[in-house]
Amino acid sequence: MYAKNYQAALQKIHGRPKMHKEGSLKRIQQAVAAFNHPEQQLTVIHVAGTNGKGSVVNNLRHLANAQGLTVGTFTSPFLTRFNERISIDGQPISDQALLNLVNQVGPKVAKLDAADPTNQITEFEFITLLMLVYFAQQALDLVIVEVGIGGLTDATNVVTPLVSVIVTVGYDHMALLGNTLAEIAQHKAGIIKSGQPVVSGRLPAEAQAVVTATAAEKGSPLYQLGRDFKVSQRQPLASWGESFTYTGVQQQLKDATIPMLGAYQVDNAAIALTAFILALKRLHQSVSVKTLKQGLAQAKWAGRLEKVNAQPLIVLDGAHNEPAMQALAQTLKADFGQLDIYVVFAALKDKALVPMLATLQALPQVHLVLTQFTGNPRVASVTTLQEASPVTLPVFEHWQEALPAVLQKMSADDMLLFTGSLYFISEVRHYFES
To answer: Which of 30, 92, 211, 351 is most deeply packed, by most CB within 10 A?
Structure first.
């Protein structure tokens, strides 16, 4: 047997090579061919972007469920357990189903590896293959696939979607994607398929130019936020959410609400709405304003400005790169400018630590504390974080020590925010849940 139990299955998954020097779809193409092309049996919306992918996928899933559709989602990373990455209607794959799946897929992959030992299928390619095989075996109406990194050579790019989505383009993973926004956008635009519509968010001009040119070259209709669909009358709600009006693709939603905060989350909701409406039209299904509003209103998303405690106010946000930290800072300034905010920060060492910390330090009401977490070999040590800061900041070797220390300094009207990494937020969230 390839894997005897669930833990052994996880070891088989995580024990694979992380990546190869050259990005290529060759390995995943050979793998899906060995399984009779499960990707061709799926109806897919494909979502790329530097930030916001997870929120858009979450919005799309809730919109589709409100429509009565059975929906598979493929996301990364996970917040609590690996199984979350492959879910149906929000329910992660069971341990037994994952074990059975690994035992079904693993032996064939081992044969492919043996045929080319220096070019073995990577961990993410293997997980992508597991997802495609599993979803092809289920009775799904729709599959929403989140890109891992980039898009052009990402393993998920073997799908041909109903709609492609490019949420944002910013500086992240530059070692793999390039040092300019145009180069990064070239990778994101790689998911655009000939003749298939594409939806784009608020992209920087040089990134939008690449996406626009790629869509034109491939004959793909382009729907651009701010041009082809819009949001207006945005209003933060006391109930920890946003209200807004959406206009686009022959639809208008007045007083639509989402259970998340931030102008960028309103953008993400508008992007998801547009992609979903386009998908429904291509599936020849009717579009109901009531159903669309119902889906958005239910689209809670863990770890994105998530309130885990009311008194005192404790919030988790997975901002993990410079663009995400800038968006978070804008929301803190706009919606919580009257509060003192104590920020416990931990991150991965390969992120843009200097600008991320500078963005937080530029907010006059922020009191910053540096710490670290466990469980990831790429975590930045507190020494590395301190070196990235122009001023000396309080440091705690363990975030569990930072929590009581910060709480002692806070008043009842202050906010405590954990941020810097989704992996960090996962660990903190597990603590609060238990």
So the answer is: 211
Alpha-carbon dihedral sign for residues 64, 67, 71, 77: positive
Give me the residues paired with residue 143 across strands: 44, 72
**Contact (Cβ atoms closer than 8 angstroms) between residue 133 and residue 38:** yes
Overall pTM > 0.70: yes
What pLDDT is attached to residue 33?
98
Mean pLDDT over 3-29 rounds to 92
Are 339 and 415 a contacting pair, CB within 8 Å? yes
* Full DSSP string of 254-310: EEEEESS-SHHHHHHHHHHHHHHHHHHHHTT----HHHHHHHHHT---TTSSEEEET
What domains appear along the chain, each with residue ranges and CATH number?
6-297 (3.40.1190.10), 306-433 (3.90.190.20)
Q: Considering only CA atoms, which of 171, 159, 422 is closest in space to residue 302?
A: 422
Residue among 115, 156, 176, 126 nearest 25 (CA): 156
> For residue 65, what are its two tokens?
């469920």
Q: In whole angstroms, what is the distance from residue 126 CA to residue 135 CA?
A: 14
d(CA 142, CA 74): 11
Give φ, ψ of 222 to 5 degrees.
-110, 130
- Distance, in Å, from the CA atom of 179 to the CA atom of 149, rounded to the nearest integer, reads 15
Cβ-proximal residues to 111 (8 Å cutoff; 6+ apart), any chain:
none
- Beta pairing class for 91-92 and 86-88: antiparallel
Rounded to whole angstroms, the Cα distance separating 266 from 271 reads: 9
CA-nearest of 164, 91, 153, 102 to 127 is 102
Task: Give the list of residues 6+ apart from residue 226 with CB closer than 8 angstroms, or none.
Answer: 202
